[in-house]
User: Which sequence fits this backbone?
């Protein structure tokens, strides 16, 4: 993770430079704009007649972890999957308003969908390795986006497997099937795969819901190490997880954004009655 | 099941004690699973037995031709049923017709070449069609295309052969073959030269392709339909295009099964008889000089000349030898496919997947 001076980096026009962690204002004209990685503007999402979320306005801080919480059916995943346009192909999906990634609409006609998805990575509810070897899994995205020459792929694989703490467990079986790994290891592998394309934003869709406590802890710890280079958005059903890893928390309920603030504030001093009810375990 | 029938009769009639006892015993056996076990064992042995039996019969019938022609049967190109009205002569202790000579090289090569052409065309078309049905077409259209695919699989081969001989062959002779022959580079003489009359290697290969596309495509479609959504979503989320997702994730996921589907099609192509006999030109004892020339396959020779051969034991023996070779080719392609499948499933597929 630390060695970002990759030869492919300079050649990658789409690759946004990571914001310097210490002083984001130093090289930016507007400090405020630069501290926002992702902004939704009156975002309304729905499928056919059914409106899932309406008028969502949120500013996701760069280099922080933002949790999206809310009861089942509140639109958490729909919102998350909008950010990398994974819903685009779902029949009936519609959106109004806008999502600005680094100040530009993700639906801008000049936006290359494939490069958008490289910049906005995703980790899913259950591990989903590809049917190829462990090392090929890590470098799958790197190969697709031609981010490293062929002879550097093994270095890339080692770098990101090390970054997720999987290197020692798999270094002797890089050519083996990933499906013989444990569920937690598979999820770490998928995280390595997502990180290897050096995303700006990482979307985690209940990333630990299928994992045991140890694997959950490993993923949670890793998420914090990604900062501040990567902005993380995590959908979670687990309140404790949100308080453990998130700097900011968005609470969605019944198709609306109820509350958005620092995690500590949302959980300890919610301004809305609804939030208090949900985080206090009274519903949801 | 038949064993229970006699027991049922006395139970309905007067019912003698010994038979009743037998019926009771049988019933108990059925209940504790003995019958099922024996049915299972019998069912498991039947395919093996049949294969061994067919092989043994073929070898037995082929022995005279093996002794008569030896290895020349595989390396030679001349085929002569001998003078059917001549007096049988004896050489090396074998009774045979004067002039008899068997060289099956054109048959063997023809069989392999037509099947190869069929596969070269059918595999990409089938996989493309399967992917299109599952991932591109709207559900209703996909169902229609899928139904047509299954209908196509059920068209009798004699109809495909007739269509090949009457419609497809002339199109090839007049339009397709000249186009390829005139534009092929000079270092590929096999694609150049005389374009023939539409009865030949290319026509047969294409007719075979038409026949195996539905087999491969419908199997591949079912396989691709079974690929879980999650890894495909993972590929899309990583910035892969639909084509990249198909190539790197969806198809490898079912790679072993696809190999199996292709072998199924290959088996059909290797053994397909009448459609090829109707379109190959039946060039007995002649090696095709180019892609358009008349040729022959193992199956086509047997079906076209059985009435000539049936009067002479040595001719029939030669056909048994031919059939044996066809069987070996088919079995060998199955074994190779199985090895391929093992290699494919060893490199990354979920445990227990594949054939």
Assistant:
């Amino acid at each position: 993770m630390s060695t970002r001076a990759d030869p492919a980096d300079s050649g990658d026009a789409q690759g946004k430079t990571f914001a310097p962690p210490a002083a984001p204002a130093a090289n930016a004209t507007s400090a405020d704009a630069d501290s926002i990685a992702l902004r939704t503007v009156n975002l309304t999402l729905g499928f056919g007649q059914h409106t899932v979320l309406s008028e969502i306005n949120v500013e996701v801080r760069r280099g922080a972890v933002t949790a999206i919480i809310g009861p089942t059916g509140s639109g958490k995943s729909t919102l998350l999957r909008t950010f990398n346009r994974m819903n685009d192909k779902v029949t009936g999906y519609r959106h109004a308003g806008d999502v600005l990634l680094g100040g530009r609409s993700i639906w801008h006609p000049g936006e290359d969908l494939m490069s958008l998805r490289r910049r906005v990575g995703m980790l899913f509810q259950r591990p989903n390795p590809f049917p190829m070897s462990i090392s090929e899994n890590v470098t799958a995205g790197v190969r697709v986006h031609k981010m490293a020459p062929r002879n550097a792929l093994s270095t890339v694989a080692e770098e990101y497997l090390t970054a997720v703490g999987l290197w020692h467990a798999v270094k002797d079986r890089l050519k083996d099937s990933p499906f013989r790994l444990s569920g937690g290891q598979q999820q770490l592998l998928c995280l390595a795969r997502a990180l290897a394309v050096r995303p700006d934003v990482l979307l985690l869709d209940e990333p630990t819901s299928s994992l045991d406590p140890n694997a959950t802890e490993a993923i949670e710890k890793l998420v914090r190490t990604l900062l501040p280079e990567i902005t993380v958005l995590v959908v979670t059903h687990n309140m404790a997880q949100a308080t453990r890893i998130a700097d900011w928390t968005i609470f969605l309920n019944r198709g609306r954004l109820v509350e958005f603030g620092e995690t500590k504030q949302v959980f300890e001093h919610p301004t809305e009655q609804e939030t208090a009810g949900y985080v206090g375990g009274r519903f949801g | 099941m038949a064993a229970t029938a006699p027991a049922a009769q006395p139970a309905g009639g007067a019912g003698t004690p010994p038979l009743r006892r037998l019926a009771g015993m049988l019933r108990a056996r059925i209940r504790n699973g003995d019958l099922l076990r024996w049915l299972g064992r019998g069912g498991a042995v039947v395919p093996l037995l049949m294969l061994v039996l067919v092989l043994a019969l073929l070898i037995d019938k082929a022995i005279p031709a093996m002794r008569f022609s030896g290895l020349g049967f595989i390396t030679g190109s001349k085929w002569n049923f001998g003078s059917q009205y001549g007096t049988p002569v004896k050489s090396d202790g074998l009774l045979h017709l004067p002039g008899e000579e068997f060289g099956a090289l054109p048959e063997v090569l023809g069989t392999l070449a037509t099947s190869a052409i069929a596969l070269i065309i059918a595999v990409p078309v089938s996989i493309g069609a399967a992917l299109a049905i599952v991932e591109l077409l709207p559900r209703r259209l996909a169902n229609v295309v899928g139904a047509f695919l299954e209908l196509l699989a059920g068209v009798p081969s004699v109809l495909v052969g007739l269509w090949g001989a009457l419609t497809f062959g002339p199109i090839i002779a007049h339009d397709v073959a000249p186009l390829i022959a005139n534009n092929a580079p000079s270092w590929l003489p096999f694609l150049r030269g005389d374009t023939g009359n539409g009865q030949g290697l290319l026509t047969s290969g294409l007719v075979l392709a038409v026949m195996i596309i539905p087999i491969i495509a419908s199997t591949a479609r079912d396989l691709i339909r079974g690929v879980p959504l999650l890894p495909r979503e993972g590929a899309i989320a990583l910035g892969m295009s639909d084509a990249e997702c198909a190539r790197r994730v969806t198809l490898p996921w079912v790679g072993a099964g696809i190999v199996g589907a292709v072998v199924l099609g290959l088996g059909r192509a290797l053994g397909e008889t009448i459609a090829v006999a109707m379109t190959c030109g039946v060039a007995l004892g002649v090696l095709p000089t180019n892609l358009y020339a008349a040729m022959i396959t193992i199956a086509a020779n047997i079906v076209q000349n059985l009435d000539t051969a049936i009067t002479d034991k040595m001719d029939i023996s030669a056909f048994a030898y031919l059939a044996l070779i066809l069987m070996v080719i088919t079995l060998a392609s199955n074994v190779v496919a199985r090895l391929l499948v093992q290699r494919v499933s060893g490199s990354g597929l979920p445990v227990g997947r594949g054939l």
Remarks:
- The radius of gyration of chain A is 19 Å.
- Chain A touches chain B at residues 84, 86, 113-118, 121-122, 124, 126, 128-133, 136, 140-141, 144-145, 175, 177-180, 190, 193-194, 197 (CB under 8 Å).
- The first helix of chain A runs from residue 7 to 11.
- Chain A has one domain: 7-12+28-279.
